What we know:
Elements: H1 26-37, E1 42-43, E2 45-48, E3 53-56, H2 58-65, H3 67-76, E4 79-84, E5 89-94, H4 101-123, H5 140-147, H6 150-158, H7 164-173, E6 177-181, E7 184-187, H8 189-203
Antiparallel strand pairs: 1-5, 2-3, 4-5, 6-7
Helix pairs in contact: 4-7, 4-8
Amino acid sequence: MQTEAPETVQVAAPVATVNPFDLVSAQHSTLIYRQFVQGKVMTKLLYNDIKAQMIENPLFTVLFNHQAHFEHLYRHLGYELCFHQKGDFYYVRELREDSSEEADDNALKVQTTLLLLGRYYTGSGRDLNLLCDPHFGLNDADHKALNENEEFKAILKAVRLDSWDKALDFITVRNFAFKSGENCYFLSQAGKAFLFRLVEEYEG
């Protein structure tokens, strides 16, 4: 008795999945993580003091092109990756409700420094937008005037910033400001967005 051969069943080949970690350089990922854990924000633009002009930040581009990957990565590390659209910068914050004392202390120092700079700048009769322009910002005369303001120095000391040099270095290291020359600074887009939001809150 002749039996029919069983039908051949076509089995689809498994679909290859792409590991998102293969799409991101480990070196870039490490550099980005180090900046975030140091309390820095990742701005779209950086200031090149040699060329005296703003340039694209390659690490920002990596974050932007692989945002979903980094969002999942940092969530597993206990952070939320946040993008501030108006200021064109990324930052991370802890997912737990009670943020660390160090993070709160750093935020207070940044906030205090920016508010004092804004108060000084508007008090000198200048538009706050110029504080964020590399061709204007703060110059030697401003630096001297700030150092001579006893009220401002007392406020800085209250948040454990011993001098204006330390206060300006504090926000510059964290990319809220850029240094354009000796004793010359201007706010980054992140610093500008932060300052203008603070001004709105205090005026509102």
